[in-house]
Amino acid sequence: MSIADLRRDYSRASLTETDVHPNPVDQFSKWLHEAIDAQVPEANAMTVSTATAEGRPSSRILLIKDVDQRGFTFFTNYESRKGRELDSNPFASLLFYWIELERQVRIEGRVERITDEENDAYFNSRPVKSRLGAIASAQSRPVASREVLEARVQEVEKQYGDHPVRPPHWGGYRLVPDYLEFWQGRPSRLHDRIAYTRQADGSWQLQRLQP
Fold this sequence. Notes:
26% helix, alpha+beta, Pnp Oxidase, Chain A, nine-stranded antiparallel sheet, 2 domains, 9 strands
């Protein structure tokens, strides 16, 4: 079988304008918790796409760590590739794909750094090994070998022990959404797509898109 012949039909559910919450963040939270309840593996995993100032895009998988009416929060190294790209072009998109439920959500908006207080609270909640790794890794930079990286972690562990301190180059971003799209797979590729666009007054315009 060729790659072009790989396909499946979607028939688990439907999505109408009357099904969804008028607030897209509330609608997202509903779908996320349904994915968690359905035991979808890594239901909080998302593709984060950024771009350079020249518009060259890049994507990677991260975990969402908080969702509220302010936006969608994730954490990383500010000096990583994504961090450098967000410094020069502070817009990004998120994509959640829950294949077991035949659903995906696209989220777009401007990205801002969260406060040091929020960063410290989350950093200190992480396992010690994860905190040590965040200090030791110059994320996205070349390294000579795995052994060099592991030696650096050992150095950091000797320095901090069980009380590593958040480095200034590590913290969170919040994507403030201005567009969200909810996709529900349907038979014959006639998928349901409901989009929300933020208006100038802060309200949300809801509309159905063709598949």
